[in-house]
Amino acid sequence: MNKETGVRIAIVGRPNVGKSTLYNRLTGRKDAIVHNEAGVTRDRKYGKASLADLEFEIIDTPGLADIGKQSLAGRMSEQSLKALDDADVIFFVIDGRSGVTSDDEMLVRMIRKVGKPIVVLANKSENTRAVEANLIDSARLGLGEALPVSAEHGDGMTHIYEVILSFMSQDEDEDEDEYEDDTPHEEDAEEEEDVQRPIRFVIVGRPNVGKSTLVNGLLGEDRVLTGPEAGMTRDAICMELTWQGRPFYLVDTAGLRRKSRIEEDLEQLAVSSTLQALRYADVAVLMLDATQPLEKQDNTLAGLIEREGRACVIALNKADEIDVNEGYLKAFYHRLKDVVPQMQNIPIIPMVAIKGEGNAELMREVVHMYEVWNKRISTSKLNDWLYQMMEMHSPPLVNNRRLKFRYMTQTKARPPTFVVFCNMSKEVPDSYIRYLTNQLRKDFDLPGVPIRFLLRTGKNPYAGKK
Questions:
Q1: pLDDT higher than threshold 50 for residue 69
Q2: Domains 196-373 and 379-457 are alike in CATH topology
Q3: In this structure, are strands 54-60 and 45-51 parallel, antiparallel, or unpaired?
Q4: Which CATH architecture has domain 3-189?
């Protein structure tokens, strides 16, 4: 049986010592981008981790550096220091091959001020004999001799297990001292049943349209790094958010540029991380710059959202810089119809992310689109509707034979998917499918979500049944 430790561990250290590799090793997933370029991680990243029978929480952080706060590296260090406030234990990672550096000594003095327990890990110590002198020398940090580990190869995980287990034992002792009756009561059971599933929504868009600024505004804190530099975010960062008592998972992503401009393999990893986040989302918020909306890359992103079957809300940022009036929105919808005809009437929220204007409206639409995305329609209503559609607009003749639509049903939601049984499914013109899809969206109030409309040849499977 797994042991829930409740321990939260922050992994810190100077750039390029293998913090993200260790994070991926402990979480068992490749969520954090790993690259031999220094400074790849720019935001703190939280994840559920496990080691043998222990379960705990881990925080990956940007590399710490003693640099001015206004610089990019300085703002990244600020993210790391905020992670220390959230942590119960600090894993200070050094490079076992190069040993303790002057930067390591300076950083240890910095993190000692937090007053949290610190454990030194010497990463890249696959060959323990080769780094033995460096392990002994690490004691000059004043935190005991470093534990040799290799995050890449999985060596030294026993050392980490024993460290975490020791902190778990301390937590258990404290719990015994503060023992209270935690027997479930009937009221508690009812509350647990009413807990809603968190809505997972992802924010996507081109670089520098304000995605991270929006995230910080929704969370009410400087949770992710922002700045004038394009491409600040690299990892897809998942964060918990509660709005009006409802839980959410909010995912910030790297800005996607045109494929022709994605040259470096590091940026390709960031793009891959964004696409993966989109696949696991319920709702996608497509963030656009109101001063230059629907550029080629915006169109590509809208198409990706449709192909992945996600519900969509458009956040039109920087709406204070132009006149976003009725005429502007009408022209915008017209252009959007040409780009993604499969997703009509997508809600558009004009907003000013840096001032927090439009945040509440955006969250309301995220909830609404999630409900639309999950909508189910009864088979009887669908078949009544189908017969009405055929009376209004008869199916066309194909090779002098009339198409016959016999039966319709919804097979799944998320996104809404419908199957129609007919006599010549492969011969049905696209124009008639579009007619049915558009009318279905209008009559059953399905704006802003992809609709899957499938045709099958065969008889009504329920014919003759009562």
A1: no
A2: no
A3: antiparallel
A4: 3-Layer(aba) Sandwich (3.40)
Choosing among 1.20.1250.20, 3.30.300.20, 3.90.1200.10, 3.30.470.20, the CATH entry for 379-457 is 3.30.300.20
144, pLDDT greater than 90: no
- Token couple for 437: 């899809």
Tell me: pLDDT of 75 over 60. no
The pLDDT of 158-182, averaged and rounded, is 64
- Cβ contact 395:230 at 8 Å: no
pLDDT at residue 35, as a whole number: 37
CATH topology of domain 196-373: Rossmann fold (3.40.50)
193 pLDDT above the threshold of 60 = no
Task: Identify which of 356, 343, 350, 232 has the alpha carbon closest to the alpha carbon of residue 283.
Answer: 343
Residue 271 predicted with pLDDT over 50 = yes
More confident call, 246 vs 39: 246
Measure the CA–CA gap between 47 and 31, rounded to whole angstroms.
Answer: 9
Q: How many degrees, rounded to 5, is the angle at CA 106 between CA 102 and CA 109?
A: 140
Residues 6 or more apart whose Cβ sits within 8 Å of residue 274: 204, 236, 253, 254, 256
Express each pLDDT in 430-448 by its tens digit. 899 989 999 999 999 998 8
Structure-model confidence comparison of residues 120 and 82, the more confident one = 120
The predicted pLDDT at position 71 comes to 43
As given in the structure block, the two tokens for residue 228 are 């004038």
Which range has the worst mean pLDDT, 197-211, 218-232, 417-431? 218-232
Domain range summary for the chain, segments of one domain joined by +: 3-189, 196-373, 379-457
**Cβ neighbourhood burial of 53 (10 Å; 0-12, 13-18, 19+):** exposed
Can you give the pLDDT at residue 310? 92
